[in-house]
From TrEMBL, chain A:
Cellular component, GO annotation: GPI-anchor transamidase complex
Origin superkingdom: Eukaryota
Keyword Amino-acid biosynthesis: no
Transmembrane domains' residue ranges: 559-581
Source organism: Arthrobotrys musiformis
GO BP term, pick one: attachment of GPI anchor to protein
Protein name: Subunit of the glycosylphosphatidylinositol transamidase complex-like protein
TrEMBL record, chain B:
InterPro entries given in the database record: Gaa1
Name of the protein in question: Glycosyl phosphatidyl inositol protein transamidase complex subunit
Transmembrane segments: 15-38, 361-384, 413-434, 446-465, 485-515, 527-549, 569-599
Top-rank lineage group of the source organism: Eukaryota
Gene source species: Arthrobotrys musiformis
Pfam family, one: Gaa1
GO cellular component terms given for this protein: GPI-anchor transamidase complex
């Protein structure tokens, strides 16, 4: 089944203007030779990670000529997103949804050099074309509001207090002319508290040409994806120009990286609740002197569990996405599924009904690639392996960890530990921190401490500093620092901050939980190694987000105060008013009121009046 | 009419003085009596879960079955390490945690206090919450040796087994930290200090960290025999701070209602929920709170606004085993995991008198406040009293003439002020001495100090009575008592809002200061006063506490010194810098009366 009929149907049914563009497109495709069709690629990379984890990286990429995009002629580029980008003059968009944390100690470097990962929650940055800053800001707000509706995320909460303009950390990845570049404004916003869930996945899948109905995206089931130990979804839109032909393409790249805990996923298959295992299922160390039926010293990780894609994802890949399958006459078949694992481990792998293994790939012992066929389900499985084969692990360029120091409701501190594991080369790093306005750092306390064998002076670590102070309720703090992390050493960045007191209406729901502070973004620009001239690719690392506790009022207090003050006011006012208006006189001073006489006088006057 | 009353009263001051005296005595009596009313049903309340998110006991706990085989095996492992040094233990524990796939950290620490060194090595493991973002954490702690220095076999084994069991669940929203502290007193303190980067030089930083700690449960399950009768919930923190009542209620409700496991408080085994047992539980709680010391590893967390309790097993006979305790801990952790916010709903100031009965601060605070009010009223009476004026023999006439209305003879403030301020400054001496002296010389130092604080007031009063004219002497003592009582009253009422029990007990011991006056006319009365003061002196209190715990005085002082250096315990400051000076000022006045009586100066 191809998705085309449904797409064109959707076009026809949307609006008269769309019908017009559709007709125009038809005309162009019939008569014009200039229109190049969009191309679409998708790829799933699987990589077993240490500690019984599996990394699955999904990559969906489509290209189309930018002229067609500008004329609102969308083929594979999602129309909903394309119109938003055009309306808001966004030239390049990066959107990240992330959940969990990447455990670089265990799993090593992040896939794609961390370029596809964002901080916990939602993070977005874009280059918006505008004449001035105010216009850029207005367009940025419009962009976020529109994306918020599109992705069912609270992106509309990215207001001026959560927006920063990074100076050193982000560089555009698209190609622009010099003239264009001067009109581009970079804006960056993050929502660390946003819980990423299925309501964000569904619109994400809808942007794909095959919409999760066929191809590798069939594996993307919300239940499995959000049970992963780490998962990150990203969307990148950028223009790409080829220097030879001077034609530009617009590229949209969607990725999903997820790390599955194999043992937990397999156990879910048996029972949703991890009940204690049966006694005979336990793997016990029988060499212990006390080993018996009653005593069991567990032996973990002594075996590589058997798994298959259908075990982990709950389903097989239901054949390739027709749009991503090259017609056979074209020859060069891009593989759809690749698995990276040690050679020994790959030998234990079996494929189920398969698609021809890709042959065009260079023969690598630790890489197996497959090309999917339409409507042919695909699955791979690994058998049990004892003793376990340790998977490949790539040492990350830098380890980063950030935590709060101190306690109390008034002051606090932040400590970031950056560790360069390389024994020879120092590494240049840009550290970016975007803080909410109610967390006010003291810049004079911003210090770097170096723990290393070589004697590096501490003032040599921070090369450059960009600081944009916060304005209360208007904007947050932006702190960017260019650092050098010496080889085989640890740099500890610390600073102190003061906690502001909020107005009681400014607290979010569940105020006593605290406030999430967005992840610090550590960018390692592409650079050359000093020792051997090897290249270090541009890499990006996010720390975890932090939970800042602010002094939180008892929210029933306003009510108590109102009642209390009202009571006091009533009592005080009552008695004072009483004292003011009442005249105190002695009993004997009071004039007797002679009721009888008064009545008589009145009657007398009446009588007089009558006689007159 | 309204204007006439004060004039009359000023003419006849004794009415005011009697009224003040009566009021202050009444305040004290009502204050003490109200404390004894608290255990009654009318004044205490049943506990209830205030935080809806906790949902205690709403989930089924599965721990048991084959997991118990693992606990038993770990018990054997712990047993085999029983007498090893802490670094060997830490290495072995780290190995077990690592094999379960957790992030492991180790921390060496060393404290110096009372001439001794307290060192060890903590080991802990962090279970990353699947999908979690490292913003929040909960801690399961088992000290290697518990507060009574018993090997915590069951607790450590259970923690190791639970760390593996918890890892299989994917529902955790917070990281779980498993901490095996080297001991129950210094280890947790070193760990929690380092977690907040507030540790001293001899304590290692933590290599692995997680987010803000939301709750701590300590498992204390010592002994080789694994059956137990009931669960002892220990909750007192350093400086008498308490964890949120919701946490205790959760543990009590889960253990009682879900697991059928009786819970006990304050070592009151076999609580019958009658008046006497409630009162005793409450008073035991108050003693622990007043001492402000650590009652378990949980105590060190509470000053960081981290709610923590210890679950200790009690008794050998019962039918509960590691399965019941494991399920209880599992269920408590499921409840903690449900928390959306930091504990804030329920009470932080309360007195528990039965596992399900408590009084809140609004009900019990008046007791301590009334004692402080009694002291303050006495101080005001002393100020109003014409004897505070150095008028000599003429004061009687003046009173009748009503000249007092315009001020009368001046009060001489310099001498009494300097006595009170000087003595309060002297309070720093015992505080500094007892925090720096070795354990070995603690006892002799204390004896010397007791002798000094008995002899010194006597010497001061002899010096003063012999050098200062009598008509200035009596008002000086009068006013010094006034100032010291005023200060004490003010301090105790402030302290009552922070540490009710300490304030109440010091108030109770200070009651004789209200009546102990300078009596040059009657030597027997002076003797009675001085004996009363001696009985209620800070030293007597130290002896009483030593007797209560069955320890020597030097052990109590060592504990105080350890508390100051390790936990940041403020009780010694209150005793030596507030209570002791007030007592010395009282003793000076009484001694002077005796001296004047003996010397015949009136």
């Amino acid at each position: 089944m191809t998705p085309f009929p449904s797409r064109s149907h959707q076009w026809l049914s949307s609006s008269p203007l769309d019908i017009f563009t559709f007709l125009l497109l038809l005309l162009l495709t019939v008569f014009g030779n200039t229109v190049v069709a969009d191309t679409y690629k998708e790829k799933l990379d699987l990589q077993p990670l240490p500690g019984q984890f599996l990394l699955a990286s999904f990559n969906f990429q489509s290209h189309g000529p930018i002229e067609a995009f500008n004329k609102q002629m969308f083929q594979l580029f999602p129309r909903s997103l394309g119109q938003i980008l055009q309306y808001t003059h966004t030239r390049e968009l990066h959107l990240r949804f992330a959940l969990g944390r990447w455990d670089s100690e265990l799993w090593g470097a992040q896939p794609g050099n961390g370029q596809n990962a964002g901080g916990t929650g939602v993070e977005t940055w874009a280059w918006v074309e505008a004449d001035n800053e105010a216009e850029a800001e207005a367009r940025w707000t419009a962009l976020n509001n529109a994306l918020s509706g599109l992705f069912c995320a609270s992106l509309n909460f990215i207001d001026s207090t959560r927006t920063i303009r990074p100076v050193m950390s982000f560089k555009p990845t698209g190609d622009y002319s010099k003239k264009d570049k001067s009109r581009l404004f970079l804006l960056h916003g993050s929502l660390p508290k946003e819980p990423v869930c299925t309501e964000n996945l569904t619109p994400f899948l809808k942007l794909l040409p095959c919409k999760g109905k066929s191809g590798i995206s069939t594996l993307l089931d919300g239940h499995k994806l959000f049970d992963a130990s780490f998962q990150s979804m990203s969307i990148d839109v950028r223009p790409i120009c080829s220097p030879h032909t001077e034609t530009c393409d617009i590229e949209i790249q969607q990725t999903i990286d997820m790390v599955l805990d194999i043992s937990r996923s397999l156990q879910r298959k048996d029972s949703p609740v991890p009940r204690p295992r049966d006694q005979h299922e336990l793997i016990c160390d029988t060499s212990k002197p006390y080993a018996s039926n009653e005593y069991c010293y567990p032996m973990d990780n002594s075996v590589d569990l058997p798994w298959s894609l259908s075990d982990l994802f709950g389903r097989t890949i239901s054949g390739g996405c027709p749009l991503a399958i090259n017609p056979p006459e074209k020859g060069d078949e891009a593989p759809h599924v690749c698995i990276h694992a040690p050679e020994k481990k790959l030998k234990t792998m079996q494929t189920l009904e398969l698609a021809a293994p890709a042959t065009s790939q260079g023969v690598q012992p630790d890489l197996n690639c497959y090309v999917l066929k339409e409507n042919v389900p695909f699955d791979i499985s690994f058998s049990k392996q004892q003793p376990p084969i340790s998977p490949l692990r790539q040492e990350p360029l830098l380890y980063a960890e950030r935590s709060f120091t101190g306690h109390g409701q008034e002051h606090g501190g932040v400590k970031t530990v950056l560790r360069n594991p390389d024994p020879v080369d120092s590494i240049g790093v840009v550290y970016l921190e975007s803080l909410p306005w109610f967390m006010k750092p003291y810049l004079h306390t911003f210090k770097a401490r170096v723990l290393s064998a070589s004697d590096v002076r501490e003032e040599d670590v921070i090369l450059d500093l960009y600081y944009r102070p916060a304005l209360d309720r208007k904007r947050g703090t932006q702190l960017e620092a260019k650092l050098i992390v010496p080889p085989n050493s640890v740099v500890i960045l610390t600073y102190d901050f003061e906690k502001a007191v909020l107005r009681y209406t400014e607290y979010p729901p569940d105020a006593n939980r605290g406030f999430d502070v967005a992840s610090a973004i550590i960018t390692i620009p592409a650079q050359r190694r000093n020792s051997n001239g090897g290249k270090i690719p541009a890499t990006s690392i996010r720390t975890t987000s932090l939970l800042l506790s602010l002094p939180t009022p008892d929210f029933s207090m306003p009510y108590n105060v109102i009642i209390f003050t009202s009571t006091i006011m009533a009592l005080a006012f009552g008695s004072i008013f009483n004292l003011l208006v009442r005249r105190f006189v002695a009993v004997d001073e009071v004039q007797r009121v002679d009721l009888k006489g008064k009545v008589r006088g009145l009657l007398g006057r009446l009588r007089k009046g009558k006689t007159e | 009419m309204a204007l006439r009353v004060p004039v009359n009263l000023r003419k006849n001051l004794s009415v005011v003085l009697y009224a003040f005296q009566g009021l202050s005595i009444l305040a004290v009596i009502v204050g003490i009596a109200s404390l004894f009313l608290l255990p009654l049903d009318e004044y205490s309340r049943r506990t209830y879960i205030s935080e809806n998110a906790l949902l205690p006991g709403q989930v089924h706990a599965y721990f048991g079955g084959s997991e118990q085989n693992i606990v038993r095996a770990f018990r054997r492992e712990v047993d085999s390490l029983g007498n090893s040094t802490s670094d060997v233990v830490a290495e072995r524990m780290a190995e077990i945690f690592r094999s379960a796939g957790l992030k492991v950290g180790k921390q060496r620490y060393s404290y110096k206090a009372a001439g001794g060194e307290y060192s060890g090595e903590n080991v802990y493991a962090v279970l990353h919450a699947p999908r979690g973002d490292a913003t929040e954490a909960i801690v399961l702690c088992a000290p290697w040796r518990n507060i009574d220095h018993l090997l915590n076999e069951g607790g450590v084994a259970l923690t190791l087994a639970l760390s593996r069991y918890f890892k299989r669940w994917s529902l955790w929203s917070k990281d779980i930290i498993f901490l095996i502290s080297s001991d129950a007193r210094a280890g947790p303190q070193a760990w929690v200090d380092a977690y907040h980067d507030l540790h001293g030089g001899d304590i290692q930083s933590l290599s692995v960290k997680s987010g803000a700690i939301q709750g701590v449960v300590v498992v204390d399950y010592p002994g080789a025999y694994h059956r137990f009768e009931s669960l002892h919930v220990i909750y007192d923190g350093i400086n008498g701070q308490l964890p949120n009542l919701d946490l205790i209620n959760t543990a009590v409700q889960i253990s009682r209602d879900q697991m059928g496991l009786r819970s006990e408080l304050q070592e009151m085994w076999g609580h019958d929920d009658g008046y006497r047992h409630r009162l005793r539980t409450m008073l035991r709680g108050m003693v622990n709170q007043a001492l402000g010391h650590s009652t378990g590893p949980h105590s060190s967390f509470i000053p960081y606004h981290i709610d923590a309790i210890t679950l200790a097993t009690h008794g050998d006979g019962g039918w509960h085993d590691e399965g019941s305790l494991g399920r209880t801990v599992e269920s408590v952790f499921r409840s903690l995991n449900n928390l959306l916010e930091h504990f804030h709903q329920s009470f932080f100031f309360y007195l528990l008198m039965a596992p399900k009965r408590f009084v809140s601060i609004g009900t019990y605070l008046p007791a301590a406040m009334l004692l402080a009010v009694g002291l303050t009223l006495t101080a005001i009476r002393l100020w109003v009293d014409p004897r505070s004026r150095s008028g000599g023999e003429k004061k009687g006439e003046k009173k009748e003439e009503g000249v007092v209305v315009d001020g009368g003879p001046k009060r001489e403030l310099f001498l009494p002020m300097s006595i009170v301020i000087g003595v309060h400054f002297c309070g720093a001496i015992p505080f500094a001495v007892f925090n720096s002296v070795d354990y070995k010389s603690m006892s002799s130092t204390f004896n010397i100090f007791v002798a000094a604080s008995l002899v010194l007031p006597a010497i001061i009063s002899i010096l003063m009575t012999t050098t200062i004219p009598a008509h200035r002497l009596l008002p000086a003592f009068h006013l010094s008592r006034c100032f010291s009582l005023l200060f004490l009253g003010m301090f105790l009422s402030t302290l009552a809002t922070l540490n009710f029990s300490l304030s109440f007990l010091i108030g109770l011991f200070s009651l004789p200061l209200m009546f102990a006056r300078t009596t040059p006319d009657s030597i027997p009365l002076g003797l009675v006063n001085s004996i009363l003061l001696l009985v209620t002196s800070p030293f007597a209190a130290v002896f009483a506490v030593a007797g209560y715990w069955g320890l020597g005085v030097e052990d109590i002082l060592k504990e105080a010194s350890f508390g100051w250096w390790v936990w940041g315990m403020w009780t010694p400051v209150v005793v030596w810098c507030v209570w002791w000076p007030a007592w010395v000022v009282g003793l000076i006045s009484v001694d002077s009366g005796l001296v004047m009586g003996v010397l015949g100066r009136k």
